[in-house]
Design goal:
Largest sheet of chain A: 6 strands, mixed
Distance between the termini of chain A: 42 Å
Strand content of chain A: 15-25%
Order of helices and strands of chain B: HHHHHHHHHHHH
Order of helices and strands of chain A: EEEHEEHEHHHEHEEEHH
Number of strands of chain B: 0
Largest interface: A-B, 36 and 35 residues
CATH topology of the largest domain in chain A: Rossmann fold
Helix content of chain A: 25-40%
Largest sheet of chain B: none
Strand content of chain B: under 5%
Number of domains of chain A: 2
CATH class of the largest domain in chain A: Alpha Beta
Strand order of the largest sheet of chain A: 6-7-8-3-9-10
Distance between the termini of chain B: 41 Å
Number of strands of chain A: 10
Number of helices of chain B: 12
Radius of gyration of chain B: 19 Å
Structural class of chain B: mainly alpha
Radius of gyration of chain A: 18 Å
Helix content of chain B: over 70%
Oligomer: heterodimer
CATH superfamily of the largest domain in chain A: P-loop containing nucleotide triphosphate hydrolases
Chain lengths: ~260, ~270
């Protein structure tokens, strides 16, 4: 199980259910995230996106179904699975009183990376994120968009092949939002990593993306945007989403 | 592979150290608390409470000499609870997630967190001992060296207790409860402020409770070590409590057992 079979998807979720007491958060969820592609996990607030992320990152353990990262089962081999995963949580998780560099070195250490190896990688990721000149500043002094980019840079230090982002644009202005989305797409293209992007903002999805529609804990559609739109008999993804989830769902709440 | 574990431990200790440097008030308040006891409380009680000759002391001692080991342990008790508080805070702020998604085993991450807290508490204890020395509490010089392993062991035990509590506490607001139900009873029902034989005169069953109190084991191990003696019972008791608390804390943070999950559940 530890050797990834050739062509195994970056992430494969199969038959995953999860309940908090009597509340069923996820119900038989199955989908895949191919390597090198931008996959949007689209769902309203409360659809189960964050629960799904918590299970994939093993903050909770799944009792049913299977989660595989390049063929490696998260429950059976958590270390190998987590080592291939870079995560940006919805909540900001940087230490505001430490500098950008200190935060990134802490992350590298948590992954067991030697400082001598971490240093050039951190420099490389910060350069890619366009934040190398902020390296010594305290995180508190950065803008919301910059903090997000530091978090993405951080998630890449241990060279993961799957990147998970849970509503990374929440609370950002339109300019920074576009910036982050473009940045993420570029990572997919250039690094060939699989990327799962949870969002409730339909306009973050473009042609050529993969999309997974999650509604009340169930997957309603999974595939290339074009296929999902066609299956729904709609003209565009917004229309398709509205048809699948009901009229009230079309306009997302709490958009930035 | 071993190198990865070392890097991880170093990283966690460095972060804890940096955070500590940034919170100078925390360091000051951690010192002021025992100093108030030493300068004011002990001075007031000096006349009331004479301490007769009892091991490890080979002569009559002043009351402030008697309570110094208890105050050192108190520093570590507060430090343990403080790290517990910071873990709950980290969890609410999300930075606990950064720790838990490390590919290294979760028990190891928790042990690193524990060791980082102990490093800080040992430093605090030595600063306090230095001030106590200026105040005239002068254990033998070698005692300062002998007390180091005792401080590490008691720091680990109290830190593990904090870790265990943090796996139970759902929100920061519940922390006041920890003060009332953990810190105060542990501190007062121990040999920190009065020798157990005195307690026994008043109430035998209370003395038994005090004798079983993990905090008493910490105080006694530190007290004996500070005078270059070894209290085997306290050492075994302390080690036993450490294993128990740490094991329970690791179970508490085991994803398969779902305690984290209940903490994270909506509503």
């Amino acid at each position: 199980m530890s050797d990834a079979p050739d062509g195994a998807p970056a992430l494969a979720v199969a038959g995953l259910s999860h309940a908090f007491g009597k509340i069923k958060a996820l119900d038989e969820v199955s989908f895949t995230v191919p390597a090198g592609r931008f996959t949007a996990l689209l769902g309203q607030n409360g659809a189960g996106k964050t629960t799904l992320f918590s299970l994939i990152t093993r903050l909770y353990s799944n009792r049913t179904g299977a989660i595989r990262i390049y063929g490696v089962d998260v429950r059976q081999n958590p270390s190998a699975a987590l080592a291939q995963m870079g995560v940006v949580f919805q909540q900001r998780t940087l230490d505001l009183d430490l500098s950008v560099l200190q935060n990134l070195h802490y992350h590298a250490a948590l992954h067991g990376i030697a400082p001598s190896v971490a240093r050039p990688r951190i420099e490389q990721e910060l350069t890619r994120a366009g934040l190398i000149d902020k390296a010594k500043q305290k995180v508190r002094t950065l803008s919301g968009g910059q903090i997000r980019r530091v978090e993405i840079a951080r998630a890449l230090i241990h060279r993961p092949r799957l990147l998970l982002l849970d509503e990374p644009t929440v609370g950002l202005d339109i300019g920074s939002r576009q910036d982050i989305v473009d940045h993420a797409r570029q990572l997919c293209r250039e690094q060939g990593i699989g990327l799962l992007w949870a969002t409730h903002l339909i306009d973050e999805i473009t042609a050529g993306d993969q999309v997974v529609i999650l509604h009340r804990g169930r997957v309603l559609a999974d595939g290339p945007v074009e296929d999902v739109v066609r299956q729904a008999g709609a003209d565009n993804i917004r229309d398709a989403f509205t048809r699948m989830t009901g009229p009230a769902a079309g306009s997302p709440r709490g958009s930035a | 592979m071993i190198a990865a574990y070392v890097h991880c431990l170093r990283g966690i200790i460095v972060r804890e150290g940096l955070r500590f440097v940034h919170q100078r008030e925390r360091f000051i308040s951690a010192l002021v608390r025992p100093l108030v006891w030493l300068f004011i409380f002990a001075a007031g009680f000096r006349a009331v409470l004479g301490v007769s000759i009892m091991p490890p002391y080979d002569t009559y001692v002043l009351y402030e000499v008697y309570i110094v080991p208890g105050l050192v342990a108190m520093i570590q008790l507060f430090n343990g609870m403080q790290s517990s508080l910071s873990i709950v805070y980290d969890r609410e702020m999300g930075s606990m997630k950064t720790l838990l998604i490390s590919p290294l085993p979760r028990w190891y991450l928790l042990v690193c967190k524990l060791l980082a807290g102990v490093t800080v508490s040992v430093l605090q204890a030595y600063v306090f001992l230095a001030i106590a020395w200026l105040w005239g509490v002068e254990p033998p010089p070698l005692g300062y060296l002998a007390v180091l392993p005792a401080l590490i062991l008691s720091g680990l035990m109290l830190g593990a207790l904090g870790l265990l509590l943090s796996s139970f506490i759902k929100q920061l607001e519940n922390f006041a409860g920890v003060m009332n139900f953990v810190i105060f009873p542990m501190f007062f029902a121990s040999s920190a402020l009065y020798p157990l034989w005195r307690v026994r005169e008043a109430s035998p069953w209370l003395a038994d409770i005090c004798a079983l109190n993990p905090f008493t084991q910490a105080v006694e191990l530190i007290r004996f070590a500070l005078y270059c003696q070894f209290d085997l019972t306290a050492c075994l008791g302390l080690a036993g409590y450490l294993v128990l608390f740490l094991a329970c804390a690791i179970v508490g943070y085991d994803p398969a057992r779902g305690l984290m999950e209940r903490r994270g559940a909506p509503g």
